[in-house]
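Model it.
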Amino acid sequence: MYNKSDFSKYIFLGLLSTTLAVTSNFLQVEAKSIPREKIFRGENYGTLRNQGKLRTYYMYTPKSYNHKHAMSLVLVFHGDNGSGNSIAKISRFNNLAEAFGFIAVYPNGLDHQWSFTGHLRQKVDDISFVAALIGHIEGIRNINSHKIYATGFSQGGILTQALACKLSNKIAAFASVAGSLTARFARSCHPTVSISMMMINGTNDFSVHYHGDPITQKEALVSIPEAMNFWRRHDQCTSSSQFQHLTPTKSRNHLQVKAFRYSGCRDGSEVLQFTVVNGGHFWPGGASTDSKLNQVNIQLGFNASKAIWSFFQHHSLSTSKAPTIKKAKR
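Modeled.
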C-alpha cells in the first residue's frame, strides 16, 4: 500500500519532460552463449528459435550494465503492424533504461502481429514465445528475476494483459497503453497470484474503444472500466478509487488526464488507471513524426513511459512466485 507521496511520484514522473542523450551502437547479436568481452552496451539485435520459428528482438543494454549485478528487465510490445524498433522510438524507453539502469527488450511479432492462442497461419502462441524469450534473455544478461516487467501499445497492450493472466509467475507488473482485456480472457483468466496493473487509455480511441466492443465481434475487448474492475476485484482492493486532475481543465484541445488508483490490494498489489479525456489512439508523451500529435503531447504534458517506469519500480515478484533461474555468468 502506498501513501499520497508515493502516488505523487507517478504524477511527477509522468509530467516530467526531459530529453536524455543516448549513445548507442548497432550490432547483430546471435542468441547464443556470448563471451563476457563480446557484450556491447547500447543497441543490439538478437534471435532465438521458438515453436519452429526464428524470432527476433531489439534490445538496449545501458552503459552501467555489469555482469556481476542483476538488472531489471522491461519488455515492450509493439502494436499491430509495428516493430520492436518502432515502439522503441515512440516510447523512448531506451532513454529511461540508460538513466535508471535497466535492460529494455522489444520483441518482434510474426507478420508484425501478436497471437494469444496460436496464429492460424503461423501456428504460434506468443505467450509461450514471451516465456521462452525471458529465459533466453536471462541466459545472456544478468537479469533480476524478481523485477521483470511488461508493457505494450495497442495490440501489444492487449498481449500485456494476456500475459498478466498467463505469466504472472515470471512478470512482476504490467502496463498497457491503448489496450484492454479480451472478453475471452476476462472469462478464463484466473491467476493464482495478485496482479499489479496500470492502464492508460483515451476516451476517444476509435481502435480500442473506451466503452468496449460489441460482444459479437471476434476477439472483442471489454470496456476500460470493466477491465479495471476485473483487476481490482481479482486483487481484492479495498480502497475507493482516488481521483486527481493531472492537467488543466481548460486546455486548448480539451484534453485532460485523470488518474484513478485502487489500493489496499492483496499482497501489496496495485491497480492504476490514467484516462486521457478526449484522447485518441496514441502513446502519451511519445515521439512522433506527426507535428500535430507532438503539439498535442506538449499541451498534454503527460509522459506515459516515465509514469510506467515509476509504477514498475514499486513492484517486484515475491520469492514464492518467482521461478528459480540459473543466472548468466556473463
